[in-house]
Specification:
It is a single chain. The chain is mainly α. The protein has one domain. The chain is built from eight helices and no strands. The longest helix has 43 residues. The two termini are 43 Å apart. Belongs to the TMEM97/sigma-2 receptor family.
Length: 190
């Protein structure tokens, strides 16, 4: 009988992460949370608030932050929501799957050096592929949200009116969008 390969003795397996231990955990949970926000909140930009199960939460958010974009849903905003629904939501599901497959493969027990080499090659390929799509997502999400912030800064007004948002309300709304520039944008630099 062949003894299992001691993974601690193989330097390639030590501290093998997609990004870093903190970033891998952070983005994994971020994708889970953002998946549900995209499905139950952001999609109302296309479907309409009145048709959403989370209607009360969305209306409370709009009144609290004066989010005229979600209330009025201009055409360009709807197009960004379509982009989110048809590209980002499937990416979230793919990221869940690939993060799990990566770590399952990484922690798989191997009994021969040949299988260890195959696992190492597979992990290396997956890592490159996952990191590429993380950067694609990061660019897409941060750029589209940055445009929303630009619009809020230049044209922000109270929902359903032409009255411009005062500075405090404008900054409050921008502060709700800003994390969606910084968090996905951070993927571009990892």
């Amino acid at each position: 009988m062949v003894a299992p390969v001691n993974r601690d003795a193989v330097p390639e397996y030590k501290k093998q992460y997609l990004l870093s231990k903190f970033a891998d955990n952070f983005y994994y949970y971020f994708f889970i949370i953002h998946f549900f926000i995209s499905v139950f909140v952001d999609s109302c930009g296309v479907i309409g608030i009145e048709n959403m199960y989370t209607k009360n939460i969305i209306e409370k958010y709009i009144s609290s932050y004066n989010d005229y974009l979600l209330f009025e849903r201009p055409i360009w905003f709807k197009n960004l929501i379509y982009l989110e629904i048809f590209t980002q939501i499937p990416m979230f599901l793919w990221f869940f799957t690939m993060f799990n497959r990566f770590y399952d493969e990484l922690n798989k027990e191997t009994f021969t050096e040949e299988v260890t080499k195959q696992n190492k090659a597979r992990i290396h390929e997956w890592k490159k592929l996952i990191r590429f799509f993380l950067k694609v997502y990061g660019l897409m999400a941060s750029a589209s949200t940055a445009y929303c912030i630009y619009e809020v800064y230049l044209n922000g007004h109270y929902p359903g009116t032409a009255m411009p948002l005062d500075l405090n309300d404008r900054l409050k709304l921008i502060s709700m969008y800003a994390p969606m520039v910084y968090i996905p944008g951070g993927l571009l630099f990892l």
